[in-house]
Amino acid sequence: MKVFKFGGASVQNIERIQLVADILRSYPDEKILVVISAMGKTTNALEKVTDAFFNQQKEEALLLFEAVKKSHLTTAKYLLVTHYNAALEQLANFFTEVEWLLHDNPVRDYDYYYDQIVCAGELLSTAIMSAYFNEMGIANEWIDVRDIVRTDNNFRDANIDWAFTQQKINSDILSLFEDTNIVVTQGFIGATDENESTTLGREGSDYTAAVFANMLDAESQTIWKDVEGVMNADPKAFPDAQFIGTLNYNEVIEMAYYGAQVIHPKTIKPLQNKGIPLQVKCFLDKTLPGTVINNKAVKNLPPIIVLKQQQALIHLHSRDFSFVGEQPMSDLYELLASLKVKPNLVQTGAVSIQVCLDDRSDKIEKLALAASDFFEVQVEKGLTLLTIRHYNDALLEKLIAGHAVALRQQSPETVQVLMQPNP
Ligand code: ASP
Ligand code: MG
After folding, report:
1. Class of residue 16 by CB neighbours under 10 A (exposed 0-12, middle 13-18, buried 19+)
2. Do residues 218 and 174 lie in contact, with contact meaning Cβ atoms separated by under 8 Å?
3. Are 334 and 374 in contact (CB under 8 A)?
4. Of 91, 179, 278, 387, which has the fewest CB atoms closer than 10 Å, so is most exposed?
């Protein structure tokens, strides 16, 4: 059994969708669980629908949703002939689910509505793709992953109920594979025990695929992307970025932790626990070897560079010049936990603490306000966090040259510099 994950970019247009079918066709006798993301930028579009709905702009929300409908209908019409009517019926059901909700007024919190609306992206995409594969002679079964992946109701960052989900996979998915080689389903979404839709965090499809790989005891997981494999830096920001052929799980966990956009941070653990190798391959050219990630030690890695934009630095000063001891620190961490924010960098001094966070304004404001109960608070915004793993001084100097540095932390393996974006 293999698990494949195709991201939004691999199904963003007709040519690419055809490449995905070609890839599946080249594994004729394999059992493959296929996880497919929402098409192109659909998730972003549905986020806008949610915003409009939540801001009581019903007409705007419906209009924005109409555009999402239209683009999926156009794609379905182009790809499907014999399977068109059946697919259309399925799409119409998903459209109706969202539209019913949009006709209501928001009475619950934002994150709940986000999940009910945004989950449509993966449902629409996989419905079209499954029908298209069948039409192309690639026999497959489509599954609504919300019947399989059970989560808690921590909307937008839901946690999977492993025992329940494993049981569902054993009873529902394994039996499907007795009759078909390919099962197509969604990543990123799940449902609570009350059948409310949930999402697992942006880019969460990689993680879902890993959960399936773990629970199906897959021989491997492959993430199909539009790049050659894992690079040592984002090639958009660093044109001379290098391809890395092999990596180990720990390195990838570190990279994801520091904000590399390669793979969703939660993806590795389920694979590592069962020693399942993760391949990152290019859907534009399936003959390229791609990157293999497993538990073997890798020597001589190039420096790995990660840039995180939109960082806020919160300066917290003790009010009476008393030392920042364990009590203020524990107050601070309790506050971070209660707001569900993860600091990217923390530095402590005698009478101050500095905390660097992703600048999500709502959370920063709440944090600053609550922290002002025990600290003098200042917030600095618009910073960039540079992280280099396996750094050397020459590279570090080159990358920070001319930038005003706000904070710097260093270990033998990793250096992090929080700086003004433009020199
Ligand atoms: N469609 C979701 C997103 O764009 C999940 C994913 O693609 O992994 O974040
Ligand atoms: Mg994606």
Report:
1. middle
2. no
3. no
4. 179
Question: Around Cβ 373, how many Cβ atoms within 10 Å?
Answer: 10
Q: Which residues, in sequence order, are bridge partners of residue 267?
A: none
**Ligand 1 atom 6: residue of nearest CA:** 203
Domain end position, chosen among 246, 265, 294: 294
* Residues that place a CB less than 5 A from ion ligand 2: 7-8, 37
Is the confidence at residue 264, as pLDDT, over 90? no
pLDDT value, residue 5: 98
The torsion of the CA quartet 48, 50, 51, 54, rounded to 10 degrees, works out to: 160
Judge if 139 and 288 occupy the same domain.
yes
CATH of the domain at 413: 3.30.2130.10
> Structure tokens of 63?
């209009």
CA angle, corner 67, sides to 62 and 73, nearest 5? Answer: 120
Q: Of 235, 264, 294, which residue constitutes the final position of a domain? A: 294
As given in the structure block, the two tokens for residue 110 are: 């934002």
Q: Tell the residue nearest (CA) to atom 5 of ligand 1.
A: 203
Q: How many angstroms separate the CA atoms of 418 and 309, rounded?
A: 10
Under a CB-based contact definition with an 8 Å cutoff, are residues 211 and 160 in contact? yes
pLDDT in tens, 173-208: 999 999 999 999 999 999 999 999 999 999 999 999
Residues near 122 by beta carbon (within 8 Å), at least 6 away in sequence? 36, 37, 38, 145, 186, 187, 188, 189, 205
Mean pLDDT of the chain: 95
Distance CA 36, CA 4 (A): 8
Query: Between helices 120-135 and 42-54, what is the axis angle to 10°?
Result: 150
Tokens representing 70 are 């239209």
Is the CB of 270 inside a 6 Å radius of any atom of ligand 1? no
Say what the pTM is: 0.88
